[in-house]
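Archive entry. Fields below.
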Amino acid sequence: MLSENWAQQIVNVATIGGMYTLVAVGFTIFFGVLGLINFAHGEVFMLGAFAALVVARTLDFTSTAGGVAMIAAMFVFATLFCGVVGAAIERVAFKPVRRAPMLVMLITSLGVSFILREAVREFFPDGANPLAFPSPFQSAEIRLRGVVISDTQILLIAASVLIVIGLYYLVERTWIGRSMRAIAEDRDAARMMGVDVDRVILAAFFIGSALGGVAGVMNGLYYLSIRFDMGWVMAIKGFTAAVIGGLGNIYGAAAGGYLLALLEVLIVALVPEGSEYKDVLVFLVLILMLVFRPSGIFRQAPQKVG
Amino acid sequence: MRHSKSFAFVAAAALSLCVTTQARSAEYSLAVNLPLTGPWANYGQGMYNSFKLAIDQANASGKLGKIKLEVIAGDNAGNTAQAVNLTTQAGSDPSVLGAFCCWASEIGIATHGIYQRYGLPVILGGSNDHRSSRPFHQDAVVFRNSPYDLINMKFAAIYAADVAKFKRIYLIDDNSAFGRTQVDEFRKFAEEKTGSGIILGRESIAQGEKDFTPLLTRLEGLDPDMIYFGGRIIEASLMRQQMVRLGLNVPLMTSGGTFSDTYIKITGDAANGTLASFWGLPMADYPHGRGLVFEQAYAAAKFNNPYEAFGPMAYATGEVYVQAIEAAAKAGPVTRAAVLEELNTREFNTLIGDFHFDKNGMPSVIHIAIYVVRDGKWQILYQTDPDATKLVKVAQ
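PREDICTED_STRUCTURE:
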């Protein structure tokens, strides 16, 4: 019989894994179409949370129905906003260096990351401070014996699963997905076959960044506070999850997210003073993966974006 | 003709350079080395604004005569390497008479020796780790505007072990120099009081981490009656929210890294029950109503950020420099050595009280108070007596 403590830890794995997955799928899309490790994705995730906060402050609903409408509005606005920001970043920052060595693109992504982070700190009202994130969900919790799960956690886990399924559908069954796969395979050949490469890459950045926006809103709703520098750690975790699963592989991103979360929880739950070494062990796994299995746990990727 | 034009241009340029240099040398400056951006910008901005307010007021009042003090805004971004560069820049700038640094303990530890090398007086704000202070090094230019952790943690432990009589305390730090030393000292003093049985265990978390539910789930099984966290605001806030969500309804005790209205704002109702030991008083409790006067002046200045928990001490630091420079100017040439001499010998009248620096650069006035969050506000429970020997209950 599973103890209450361990049952709660399983809920913790599902929640943390869901969050990592939401960020990791963005990394996997960018890598799939452009071979780019886009560290600015962490800041787009942060922008999603701030965009949702603007909506929440503007629409101050108090009733339950109003709360649901507010959350819907937060998701819609943050998703569109981040999608547009991501597309703009692609056009302004990445397109001009698309044919440059990969290191140039990597450094560009770091530069964009700094600019976005410090812009929010400087220009968002009270942006240097951690900010409370409003949520009508915060009081609703389900308690089964000693195990607690909130409706935000359920939403987060469901969102991560639905997004992975939706992305699979997009990549496999739609014109844009086929175009993305074609570009990932051979960009020049895709162009010769009539694929509008620029447009597809732009669309991929819109989609990946919009998903970063969803992750940012979920992060705000679950942790109830946001800050201008929240993106960096999540970017590192999302990137690690994507590498573990296999960069460019959507299912891999999900598997990597949940595996990373499982690893973190096991270390904390089983190893005395394990919290201190959690990140060390996680990044050790990252290094081992890069050295011994750089294509991730799914060597033969079942469904690749790239 | 062409040559004479060139000559005239060069001469004019040289002349303007002389004028600029002369104008610059007539001014004096104070170098700030604080986290104005980065993860601790909320504290750094509040400290910078408060410090600058004191200097601006002195400049406007004319009490410094012909001297106009300039505040050089150095942003260390919470980064030690950046802070070291700022320290070197300030040290090599002859117009700089004194510095105000660092907020983060690790930066105080990294920079005190550099300030000493340049003979540049520095007053530490925050930087609670004792290793940045005398007598733990011999750098005679280093002063503090608040007591260090050895004093603060002693009273935190007295409260936890003697007053509140917690018996099963779990310790968590944020793996920073500040957090680790806070927890080390808290543990030392608590075990001195009651023996080693009071501490159930210890963990370190990483700064920037957001999810502590795996750790807190494990701690639930250990049945602690208090969790002490040596760390900073965002992690403390998340930890408290997650404790409440998981039903781990025991007090979370923290210190100066968390004592802030921002903590309450972002933690919401879950903040209630949080304890903190802090080296400051409620604004209304500072002597002669100076806290309230500062509060009004800060509001009137319309800064973009609140003054935060360290604002009053930062303002007092500005007052200290103004009074030291004013006295130095009356006695002779205004130099770093003259300012240092005044810091070592004068009594200062400031917002936080009238005090002098002792032989280790520590202020002679010490306020340490134990606060709890009740009804969404930090409320003072205990404060040290005037000689800082014991905790005295504060009437509610």
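CURATOR_NOTE: Residues 157 and 190 of chain B are 5 Å apart (CA to CA).
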